[in-house]
Amino acid sequence: MNHVAVVGAGLAGVRSAEALRARGYRGRITLVGDESHRPYDRPPLSKAVLLGDLDSTVVDSDFAALDVDLRMEVAAKGLHEGTLETTEGELEFDGLVIATGAVPIRLRGEGPQRVLRTIDDALALRAALVPGARVAVVGAGWIGAEVATAARRAGCEVVVVEAASAPLSVALSPEVGAYTVPWYAAAGIDLRLGTMVGSVDPGGLAMMDGSWIPADVVVTGIGVRPAVSWLAGSGVELDNGVVVDEHLRTSMEGVVAVGDCANWWSRRFGRRLRVEHWDTALHAPETAIATLLGETAVYDPIPYFWSEQFGHMLQYAGHHDGARLVLRGDPQAGVKWAVCWLSDDDRLAAILTVNRPRDLVQGRRIIEGGQSLDVDRLMDPAVPLRDCT
After folding, report:
1. pLDDT value of position 102
2. Strands 224-226 and 217-220
């Protein structure tokens, strides 16, 4: 293998290039990305950057030392076996890493709406969050809650509209998301649930029920789609992203996929997963590159992510679809609590912790080990989680 191309210059793409060199690959590496900035981390955009604590999140990687040909402002346009089509022409390769990530979903309408995906998005939004500005956030998911947190801290008047019956309904469930509702009121935010946007118009939001929400700034945070349209007709199998096996191998010889755009098979959970979080972008490249270089490696992580909102640290590990919910502590009585999801045989499938980082660390280990839990002890937050096995 003489030339590996990596398309997508986010964290997953950078880590792929680093993994190639770490495994002794001495051939050419070309890393292409469609932004003008050097590769950077995305999680701080909705946290430290938006809050004004950071202006840059550039990844600390020495591309000259790695002998990587970094080509910015170059977008992928198509793919054929052995050839990547880009906005700068064709690029032939022996191996390819697909790491093109995801793109935000936008609402219909002629009015201005902001999304939060790039460093430029974050800096522009931060500049717009001035005291007294009327900010409408569409979506009470992870991004929506973090944007609302920053906007309120900046002194803005904030309205959050959510189509579901509770925040975080898609990510966690309406039952769990409902425990975060009081946080919005405590922060002075007008949270409107079960409310759908008709369109984003100049000056605000036209709602489906005929009402109008005036806004100087509209931020749309209703999710993302895998950035894989450029692969249409390539022969690479697509279904909610790039379909890969547990080795992160695609349906095309010599091509692997990592990060937000990869839909992989999990042996642990017995289903396909596509996880749009930093932890996946950080660790998946090790497996993908091992596979690309002919080694045997399996990617089967315990998904993990975190969020900082309204003064609370939320951390999640696992996958809870089909599992039953058990509370650990009382969300209505204190600021430290957790939610555990158990399988039929009382094994821990997933855990959400709120201001309980030790529970997250111990819970992740328990999920890894697959031990059954004593449910009565689990429900007592005074009992260390590790002592519930």
Report:
1. 96
2. unpaired
* 12: its two tokens: 């997953």
**Residue ranges in 28-83 assigned as alpha helix (H):** 48-51, 63-66
Q: Are 339 and 325 in contact (CB under 8 A)?
A: yes
Cα four-point dihedral sign 50, 51, 52, 58: negative
Return the closest-CA partner of residue 265 out of 246, 241, 287, 242.
246
Q: What is the CA radius of gyration of the chain?
A: 22
d(CA 175, CA 346): 20
Cβ neighbors of 44 (< 8 A, separation 6 or more) are 54, 57
Give kind and range of the element (H or E) at residue 125: helix 119-128
Owner of token pair 């001035």 = 130
Q: Are strands 324-328 and 337-342 parallel, antiparallel or unpaired?
A: antiparallel
The one-character DSSP state at 310 is T
CA distance 294 to 304: 28
Instruction: State the helix-helix crossing angle for 11-22 and 278-292, rounded to 10 degrees.
Output: 40
* Token output for 154: 């900046």
The residue assigned the tokens 């979506």 is: 139
Question: Rounded distance, CA 317 to CA 360, Å?
Answer: 7
- Asked whether 270 and 297 are in contact (CB, 8 A), the reply is no
Residue 334 confidence (pLDDT) above 90: no
Distance from C-alpha of 19 to C-alpha of 176, rounded to nearest angstrom:
38
Distance of CA 233 to the CA centre of its chain: 27
Percent of the chain having pLDDT more than 90? 96
| Structure-token match 């189509």, residue found | 163
pLDDT digits (tens, 9 = 90+) for 88-141: 999 999 999 999 999 999 999 999 999 999 999 999 999 999 999 999 999 999
CA dihedral 210, 215, 219, 223 (to 10 degrees): -10
Which residues, in sequence order, are CB contacts of 305 under 8 Å at separation 6+?
Answer: 142, 275, 277, 278, 279, 315, 316
* Tokens coding 183: 């946080």
**Pairing mode of beta strands 348-354, 95-98:** unpaired
Its pTM stands at 0.94
Closest CA to 309 of 166, 158, 135, 148: 148
